[in-house]
Structures are given as structure tokens and as C-alpha cells.
Write a structure and sequence with these properties.
This protein is mainly α and 201 residues long. The chain has five helices and two strands, in the order ααββααα. The chain has two domains: 3-48; 59-200, Four Helix Bundle (Hemerythrin (Met), subunit A), CATH 1.20.120. The protein has a two-stranded antiparallel ribbon. A hairpin with a 5-residue loop joins strand 1 (96-98) and strand 2. The two termini are 27 Å apart.
């Protein structure tokens, strides 16, 4: 921006050379005015740049805050999923646990005792998760609910026979498959969201 007024001033100075002393006075004045114009132009550019930098910094803070909130919510969602997954896993691997004091706890009983806890956690998180998750992860979420319900239906059986054990293993295999795809999907989603937020700012 500063090169234009200087070039303009140089042209005028050349044109005034034949007019002698008064021309020199005018030339000095023109030089002062051209310098003043250049300084004002630079100040305006600097002011505009500072405004843009401030706007970008504010946007970055907002995006970082939003990402942190999304991350916290999705971690809570996965933690609820994983707790119920572990209960199903324990019920699949063993029918009961015997503790050092001799007491025996049936994994079926633990499953039913904790089922309402998982339902409550899911109900509290599901609405927000549905707003944040892409359609691919929402599909996996629906599959996870279906897989857990299928496992629950198997756990209703009262006879500990081979059919019960086989159906329980098959039902848990579906839960395991959903877990692996949910973990991969969440990692990809969070990594992509973070990269997009950073690049856009």
C-alpha cells in the first residue's frame, strides 16, 4: 500500500522541477502528505488485521470448548456401554463367582441387579448422543441396544443346560462385535472432529 503514494509523489516532483524554489516547497508538502497517507493506510491495515486475529482467537476458544464438551459426553456414553458390556462378559464366562470367604454370587443375579442402572444411564445420555453422533454411529448404537436386549432374553432362561450356554455365547458374540465397531467409530469421529475444528480456525 505504501508504494503507491511514493510513486505518485515522485511523478509530481519530476513535473515541478522546472518551476524553481516554490516548486520545492510544494514538493516538500506533497512528500509530507504522501508519507502521512501511507502511515494511515498502514494503520488501517494493522487495525483490520488485529480485528481478524481477535475474531479467530475467539472462534478457536469456542470450538475448543465445544469439542471438550462433546468429548466428555461421548466418554460418559461409552463408559455406560462398557460397564454393561463387562457385566455381560462376566455372565458369559462364568455362571457364578466364589469369593475367598466362601460366599457365592451368581453372575445372572449381578446382571439383573445392574440392568436398571444401565437403562438409567443410557436414558440420561442417549438424547444428547443422538444429536452429536453421525448416522453411522447411530446405527451402531441401535445395534448395541438390540444386542444387549438379545443377551437379556437369553439370561431369562432358568435352566443351565448346553442350549443356554450356547445361546449365551452367541448373544455375547454380537455384543462383542458391536463393541469393537463402536470403539473404532468413536475414535475416528473424535479424531476427525478435532482435526476439522483445528483446520477451520
Amino acid at each position: 500500500m505504501a508504494s503507491e503514494p511514493i510513486s505518485w509523489y515522485s511523478g509530481v516532483l519530476t513535473a515541478l522541477e522546472p518551476f524553481g524554489g516554490w516548486a520545492a516547497v510544494v514538493a516538500v508538502l506533497l512528500h509530507y502528505l504522501s508519507g502521512l497517507h501511507a502511515k494511515r493506510a498502514l494503520q488501517q491495515e494493522a487495525s483490520e488485521l488485529n480485528r481478524k486475529v481477535a475474531d479467530l482467537a475467539h472462534e478457536l476458544k469456542l470450538r475448543e470448548s465445544a469439542y471438550a464438551k462433546h468429548l466428555e459426553l461421548l466418554i460418559r456414553y461409552y463408559e455406560a456401554f462398557y460397564r454393561h458390556y463387562r457385566i455381560c462378559q462376566g455372565a458369559t464366562n462364568q455362571d457364578a463367582y466364589r469369593f475367598p470367604d466362601g460366599s457365592l454370587v451368581k453372575t445372572r443375579d449381578t446382571f439383573w441387579e445392574k440392568l436398571d442402572d444401565w437403562r438409567s444411564e443410557l436414558a440420561a445420555l442417549e438424547g444428547s448422543a443422538r444429536l452429536l453422533l453421525p448416522s453411522s454411529l447411530l446405527d451402531i448404537h441401535e445395534e448395541s441396544v438390540a444386542a444387549f436386549n438379545e443377551f437379556k432374553d437369553v439370561m431369562k432362561r432358568t435352566v443351565y443346560d448346553e442350549k443356554y450356554q450356547s445361546e449365551k455365547r452367541d448373544a455375547f458374540a454380537k455384543v462383542e462385535n458391536v463393541k469393537l465397531r463402536l470403539e473404532a467409530g468413536l475414535r475416528s469421529f473424535l479424531r476427525t472432529e478435532h482435526m476439522v475444528s483445528a483446520s477451520e480456525t
